[in-house]
Every structure is written in C-alpha cells, then in structure tokens.
Amino acid sequence: MTWWDSADDDPEPEYDESSVRIRPNRKGNKPRTKTRPGHENALTARVLAVDRGRYTVMLDENRQGERVLTAARASELRKHAVVTGDRVDIVGDTTGAEGSLARIVRIVPRKTLLRRSADDTDAVERVIVANADQMLIVVAAANPEPRIRLVDRYLVAAYDAGVSPILCITKTDLADPSEFLQNFAGLDLPVFASREDHMPLAEISAALIGHDTVFVGHSGVGKSTLVNALVPGALRAVGVVNTVTGRGRHTSSSTISLRLETDAGRGWVIDTPGVRSFGLGHINTDNILKAFTDLASVAENCPRGCTHLPDSPDCAIIEAVERGDLGETGPARLDSLQRLLSTFANAPAH
C-alpha cells in the first residue's frame, strides 16, 4: 500500500465546539452582560460644583467625618447630566486624600429641578440647579435699571419648578424702588432692600437657614457682592456695570454651592452666573396657576382651555374679581397672574 492509498482510506476528522480556537478579547474573555453591579455599599454625597467632567462633592454632610471629594461620572451615567445640588451615590476612593477620585454611580431622585432654555421657542432645557427649595432673585434699583420682564421670567421658572421665590433689591441708595416693587404687590413675595451702607444680612440669613437657596440675577446687580457678604471666604468674582451700555459684565462663570454658617443654623447658598436672558420654552403654564392657590381654587369653575387672560370668555377668576369675591387684593393678584401667563405666552426672550 502506497502512502496515497493509506491517506484515501482514513476517515474524515470530526469537529466539535472544543476544536474552535477562541480569539482573545482585548478587554478580557469575560462575556458581556447588561447586568450592572448594585453598589449596595455606595455612599450618598452632595454635588457642590461641576468643572469639565469632574465633580466636587461633600460626603457625610453635617457629621464628624464630613469631607470634600473629587469624583468622576460612571460610564453608565454618560447620558445623564449631573448638576450642582444633586445628591449622588458614590463608590471607590472616598477618603478625600489628595489625588483620589471617587465614582458617581447613581443620581438620587430629585425633589426640584430649576431649568431655563436659550429662548422661548427652544425646547432644549439648560439645567441650572437640582433640589433647591428657594430662589433669591437679586435686582438693582438702578445701574443697571431693573427689568420687570426678567424678574417675571424668574418667577415663572420658580413657580414651574416648585421653588419659593424671594426678592432682594440692591442699590436702593441710588433710586427709590417703590414704583418697581408695586408690580409685585399681588404676590406673596418676601422682599429685602439693600443699599451700599447697609445690607440686611441678618434678615436674609434668617430666611436662608434650613434651605437650599439658588441666587439668580442680571449681571452687575450685586449678586456676587451679596454672596461674599453672606459667606465670608466665598471669593466670588465681583463685576462692574459698563457705563456705555448699562449692562453688567459676566463674572461668576459657574454654579457653586456654598454653605451658610450662622449662630442660628446652617443653609446653602447656590450662586449662579449672571444672565441677560431667561428662556421659558420648557414651562408648563399649569404650574404658574398652582402657585396662586387662592386663584387656582376659583379656576376650577373656568371653562376648559381657559387662559385666564383679559380676553378669556367666562373666566371664573375674572368674574370673581369683578364681583369683589377675592377682596381688596384680588385685582392685584389677578394682574400678577395674567402678567406671568402672558410673559410666557407672548413675550420674546429677554
């Protein structure tokens, strides 16, 4: 028998799965899975600031082991924005040692979310802060001139987010704010007045204790000056007003949480960059009416689709005010509601 005869008589070789050579995976040979670790031992922290993919967080707030860490966002959160004021669950190196880096693996469900859009037609939201329960609107009596429409926009955003607004008017030594404040007489809006030689720090601090308060305001109104006075060591940049345009220059470039410490208690001041526009493209107008609890109960008798604006037929609120059912403050309350609703419905972005 020749060698080729022997080869022809051999049976065909048999193959099974074990015969297949598995090529090594660069990332390891573990099969991929969509199951993510539960991170049951994760610790909850407060996000103080965000800077280019790094998050400054405070762990063990108000406890003996309180410390500030730097954290990065886990890959599974790459499509979820983490913002100042968020409460997050972190794992990894939580010692706070120099050079250490923790990892954010979860965002705790938010209680509130304050947002704005680029303009009134833009549905894309710009998140300002999470979990704030108060908004301190800072406006100057002069230099720059107060802008009623911008304050209205802040109020609309606050009511939509379920955040209680407070108004602080600065530079009252330059102009009498009475006429300006009359525009908000129909609102349950606490007001603080400040001048160069007297800032009501004790009164404002008392209103901030126990709250997370976001500070908003047009550039140049004195917001950063107020923050620096309330939180010594904050070192927020203070701007000036352009003498030609009458506009303030943007100084604070990021949103940051600062702790307010007083003998009576603690609170959080959340400072934001000064803005010249505040779009309302994301607002739900139903939330504006909810902020006027007395008017909202009357509105239950309105026809479906009622806008509550002056040209609304059979509006129960308008009819109740005309009859005097809502007392002396009724007309002012209705005027404030209608101005805020029309601000969202018709006004261009400012």
Model description:
The structure is a single chain. By secondary structure, this protein is α/β, with parallel strands linked by helices. The chain has 3 domains: 65 residues, OB fold (Dihydrolipoamide Acetyltransferase, E2P) (Beta Barrel); 159 residues, P-loop containing nucleotide triphosphate hydrolases (Rossmann fold), CATH 3.40.50.300; 61 residues, no CATH class. Helix content is 22%, strand content 23%. The strands form 3 sheets. Strands 10-9-8-11-13-12 form a 6-stranded mixed beta sheet. A hairpin with a 2-residue loop joins strand 1 and strand 2. Helix 2 crosses helix 9.
Task: Describe this structure in a few short sentences.
It contains nine helices and 13 strands. With 350 residues, it is α/β, with parallel strands linked by helices. The N and C termini lie far apart (99 Å).
Summary tags:
single chain, five-stranded mixed beta barrel, 9 helices, alpha/beta, OB fold (Dihydrolipoamide Acetyltransferase, E2P), 23% strand, 350 residues, six-stranded mixed sheet, 3 domains, 22% helix, Rossmann fold, 13 strands
